[in-house]
Amino acid sequence: MSFIVSARKYRPQKFEDVLGQEHVTATLKNALTSDKLAHAFLFCGPRGVGKTTCARILAKVINMDDPIASLKDGSYADHDLDISMNIFEQDGASNNSVENIRALIDQVRVPPQQGKYKIFIIDEVHMLSQAAFNAFLKTLEEPPPYAIFILATTEKHKILPTILSRCQIYDFKRIQPKAMVSLLKDIASKEGITADEEALFLIAEKADGAMRDALSIFDRISSASENKINYDQVVKNLNILDYDYFFRSLDLILTQDHTGLILLFDEILKKGFEGDLFVNGLAKHLRNILYFKNKSSEHILEISSSLKEKYALQSQNISLANLLTFLNLTNQTDIEYPKAKDKRLHIEINLLKMCYANTEVQELPLKKKLLTPAA
């Protein structure tokens, strides 16, 4: 098989190509050009945002004969990491014992055969055992002048404070949807794939800030749809609730069409979606409407232009007081959902409350029973 997944095929080879981490790449480039390179780095942040990629790029630049010149002309991008004898990459999840760390320390003691530095990349470093961390402490604090350690983790809180204090810490952030969509468009163009903007925004939202996840979803959808990606295909393949359901739900609530609302909820359940997924989706939809109630906050949402128009239009038809009432009701529904015995009824009751949130409930007068005197 000659197919290479997009996450590998389009892995950045230069600092400039790393998406959404300019605060990290700029600092690393400045450290290299000013010759103020630390002996230990810790890259931490969510999955799929470029931690290991940045570690590999940094290792390539350090190993160049003239790092400053290679940064300026970008020649380090063509350097093959796999053939370097001075770069060692280790997975902390599968090599987490004291013996593994001792073997690594033995490698540290041997000077590089070529070049100035030996670089040790340890991925998922938080998976190391307590004993392994302790065995690593002394070497990490006072390594030989030719050794540089680059540690990467998704869970910084699990790493010993004594390890943290010995490293320069770089915090990677989630990648914004607009940046993801821009890259996905570029990749789609290179691969000859037709992709709708709304579909790419939905993929970016589903990826939750992880570019690797977005590329995996992109590959999956393009394979299933024969190189054509549209909104309906993404919704179907990812089995997610369409935005349209929430726009329709709010319209039915505002028109007090409780029958239509219950039928719509029934349709959602018959498609296999759980009730709490609908409630959370409706709450998110109401929050998005809240953003569009004010021009100064609508930029918070990074969505397609056509979807922005729908939100802006619906936000004009609902008062802020009603919006806050509905948000409170969805929040209470979500909190009480796990304890409800009849979960469907629990949601339906709260949907009816939303329909008639501003309607005064009239109590019918009790009919007095006529008591007949005993014979």
How would you characterize the overall build of this protein?
The chain is of the alpha/beta class and 375 residues long. The chain folds into 3 domains: 6-171, P-loop containing nucleotide triphosphate hydrolases (Rossmann fold), CATH 3.40.50.300; 177-238, Orthogonal Bundle (Helicase, Ruva Protein, domain 3), CATH 1.10.8; 243-355, Zinc Finger, Delta Prime, domain 3 (Up-down Bundle), CATH 1.20.272.10. 52% of the residues lie in helices and 8% in strands. The protein contains 17 helices and 7 strands. A 5-stranded parallel β-sheet has the order 2-3-4-1-5, covered by helices on one side. It has a two-stranded parallel sheet with strand order 6-7.
Task: Detail the topology: elements first, then pairings.
Elements (H helix, E strand, L loop, with lengths): L5 H4 L12 H12 L6 E5 L6 H12 L4 H7 L13 E5 L6 H12 L8 E6 L6 H12 L5 E7 L7 H4 L3 E4 L5 H15 L2 E2 L1 H11 L3 H14 L3 E2 L1 H8 L4 H12 L3 H13 L4 H17 L13 H11 L4 H17 L6 H13 L20
Parallel strand pairs: 1-4, 1-5, 2-3, 3-4, 6-7
Helix pairs in contact: 5-6, 8-9, 9-10, 9-11, 12-13, 12-14, 13-17, 14-16, 16-17
